[in-house]
Amino acid sequence: MMIQKIKKLLEIYKRERYFENLQDVQNPKTGISPREKKRLMESSAFQQETAKVFDLDFIFSHGPSLLHSLEEIFGDDIYLFDSENDTPYIIDCGANVGVSVLYFQRKYPKAKILAFEPDEEIFKILEKNITAFGHPSTQIRKEAGWTKDEDLQFYSEGGLAGSCVTDFAKKNQITTVKAIDLKKYLQQPVDFLKIDIEGAENTLIFDIADSLKNVKNLFLEYHGILNEEQNLGEILNLLKSKGFEYYIRVAGETIVHPFCNEKPESFNQQLNIFCYRKK
Fold it and tell me: What is the mean pLDDT of the chain?
């Protein structure tokens, strides 16, 4: 009887140890373990920390924001595209702390990557991460992709939602950032252009319209700005006129019951628009 009890206790211990060890097993898609995922979910303060991502010491500023980016970018492969060559040219507007850059580097190891991030503090983190990644053909610039070279007012949020057009987090943390004319970087073939700039895309996309002929694939995150006239229809018509097919997916539910006069807290729409050429 005693031996059976000991065997049963050993089995329970082994089972507990097994599940405990699983907490440190890296998800092959997102690069983080269940234990690290839990820590990121609970790390809601806006402060610089480090997480293990694909065995890299990845620096971040806000745990839930990093987790969202990993699950969307790596888990859902939202930036995956078929490249016609092994050295695609990729432009990343709104690189944040570098999750998208890491994705491009892992999927397209020989890619030439140009990444823009205007937020001073976020850029410092991006710079550290890029150095750790060790990808020589990646260039980062502390600038906002824009319609012309100028200084812009910038609302810093500390995570994913820094913006030149709206104070998403209502923090009133206003700084001045350098902006560059994106058109001058679109005068050669671009295999993938990512634009996720928290509302500024509503102006930028019309300014770069004539340069889109050089872009093979475009990812555009559309944000409908509160108290401004919606221009999604005009954007879609522009994309069609430039030869793009497009697919639209909800990026974030901002209104649950549109017919009930609900007032969204942030954007009235948040959509991922995947733009590609018919083959």
Answer: 89
